[in-house]
Amino acid sequence: MKTEDLVSLLAAGVPAIDHNLSAKRFSWAMLCGGVGSTVLMAIVYGVRPDIGAVIKTPLFWIKLALPLCLAFAALLATARLSRPGSAVGRAWAALAAPVLTVWIATLVLLWLAPPDARLPLVMGNTWRVCPRNIALLSVPVFITVFWAMRGLAPTRLRLAGAAGGLLAGATAAVAYCFHCPEMGVPFWAVWYLLGMLIPTLAGAALGPRLLKW
Q1: Residues spanned by the domain of 141
Q2: Cα distance between residue 39 and residue 171, in whole Å
Q3: Distance CA 55, CA 49 (A)
Q4: Res 204: pLDDT
Q5: Considering the domain boundaries, does residue 13 fall inside one?
Q6: Which of 10, 122, 140, 141 is the most exposed place for a label (fewest CB within 10 A)?
Q7: Residues contacting 130, CB < 8 A, separation 6+
Q8: In a domain, 158, yes or no
Q9: Residue 15 backbone zone (phi > 0: left; psi -120 to 50: alpha; other: beta)
C-alpha cells in the first residue's frame, strides 16, 4: 500500500474541523451570560429610576467605558488562553490601559478636590455593597464563560481561569452601571475594580479544577 493511500484510509470518516468553534462558543457564552447578568440586576437591584436622563450625560458613558473596555480585552485574553500555544500578546496592554487611565484620572481629581472632599469622592454612598453586587452579577457569565473554555483546550488553567473570571466581572459591571447611582471616577477606580477582582481571583482558584481536560 502506498503512503498516500494509507493516509487517505486513515483520514476517511474523520469529521472536518470547525475553525469557528471558539468564536461560536464564546458568542453563546457572552449572549447567555450577559442576558443573565442583566436580568439578575433588574430583578435583584432594579434599574435606577433616572436612567433615561443619566444615559444622556457624557459621564455615564465614561463610566460604562471602563468595564466595557476591560470586558473586550478580557474576552480577547480568555479566547487566546483557551487554545494551546496561543500568545496573549497585546491583550495584556489592552487590560492595563483602562485601569491606568481611571487611576490617573482619580489622582488628578483627588489632587484638585479640597482635602475634606477627597474621602467622600472615593467612598461614595454604596462602597459597602458595590463589590459584592458586582461579584453576584458575575455568576451567570462566570458559568457560561467557563463552559465555553472547558469545551476548548486551555493549558494554562490558572491564568485562563483568572482571565475568564475577569471577563465575568467586567460584564457584570457593565450591567451594574444601569443600577449604580455612583457617578464619581474615584469610586469606580476603587470599588468597581475590586468587584471585578473578586471573580478574577475565584477564576484563578477554580481554573485548575473546572478547566481540567
Answers
A1: 21-205
A2: 13
A3: 12
A4: 96
A5: no
A6: 10
A7: 124, 176, 180, 182, 187, 191, 192, 194, 195
A8: yes
A9: beta
When divided into structural domains, the chain yields a total of 1
Residue 213 domain flag: no
Pick the closest to residue 202 from 142, 145, 149, 155 (CA basis): 142
Give the pLDDT band (50/70/90) at residue 5: low
Q: How many residues are given for the chain?
A: 213
Contacts by residues 80-88 (CB-CB < 8 Å, ≥ 24 positions apart): 81/149, 81/154, 81/156, 81/159, 81/160, 81/163, 82/22, 82/148, 82/149, 82/152, 82/153, 82/154, 82/160, 83/22, 83/152, 83/153, 83/154, 84/153, 84/154, 84/155, 85/155
The secondary structure of 143-189, three-state, reads: HHHHHHHHCCCCCCHHHHHHHHHHHHHHHHHHHHCCCCCCCCHHHHH
C-alpha cell at 171: 460584564
Q: Could you read off the pLDDT of 161-191 as tens digits, one per residue?
A: 999 999 999 999 999 999 999 999 999 999 9
What values do phi and psi take at 184, rounded to 5? -105, 130
Residue 174 CB-density burial (10 A; 0-12 exposed, 13-18 middle, 19+ buried): buried
Whether residue 8 is contained in a domain is answered as no
